[in-house]
Amino acid sequence: MRTGTSCCGRANSPSNTEVEEDCSKRLVTFKLNEPGYLKQFNGYWSIEPWMQEAKQLGSKVSVAQEVLPSILPPGPLGGYVSRILGNQIKYALQDLAMAAEQFQHAHGI
Predict the structure, then answer these.
(1) In total, how many domains does the chain have?
(2) Which residues of the chain have pLDDT under 50?
(3) Do 31 and 50 share a domain, yes or no?
(4) Rounded to an integer, what distance in angstroms lies between the CA atom of residue 39 and that of residue 21?
(5) 3-state secondary structure 8-39
(6) CA distances from 8 to 19, 56, 64, 89 (A)
(7) Closest C-alpha to 23, from 9, 3, 7
(8) CA dihedral for 2, 30, 22, 108, sign (positive or negative)
(9) Is 64 in the same domain as 85?
């Protein structure tokens, strides 16, 4: 298990989030060390091969996050904050899908 560097050997940028990578399990976990505008930010990403008839067709990516703002605005503004956080996850997954597509094209997959 590695902390602070990626499986590719690149260093993570400094932040208040601890990131651990377990390349053998294809798992990245993260947790917030020092609260700021977020009280809690924890979760994981995992990647599993998507197999059919002993042939890998792609990958299954799972994401789980726990996000809790330090201060949740009352009423309708609280729903607004929830939508922003949900959209951030959606955009991250869209970026991941686009990067995977570019990788497939570049490697003739």
Answers:
(1) 2
(2) 1-13
(3) yes
(4) 23
(5) CCCECCCCCEEEEEECCCCEEEEEECCCCCEE
(6) 14, 22, 23, 23
(7) 7
(8) negative
(9) no
- Nearest CA among 92, 89, 42 for reference residue 65: 42
22: closest CA among 52, 45, 53, 54? 45
> Rounded to the nearest 5°, which phi and psi values hold at 70?
-65, -40
Q: Tell me the CB-side half-sphere exposure of residue 108, using CA atoms within 13 A.
A: 0
Residues 20/34, Cβ–Cβ less than 8 Å? no
Residue 4 structure tokens: 């602070």
**Distance between CA atoms of residues 51 and 47, nearest Å:** 12
Contact (Cβ atoms closer than 8 angstroms) between residue 21 and residue 35: no
Q: Which two tokens stand for residue 55?
A: 């042939």
The reply to whether 16 and 45 lie within a common domain is yes
Q: What is the pTM of this model?
A: 0.61
Same domain? 66 vs 27: yes
Q: What is the pLDDT of residues 35-55, one digit of tens each?
A: 887 888 899 989 898 889 999
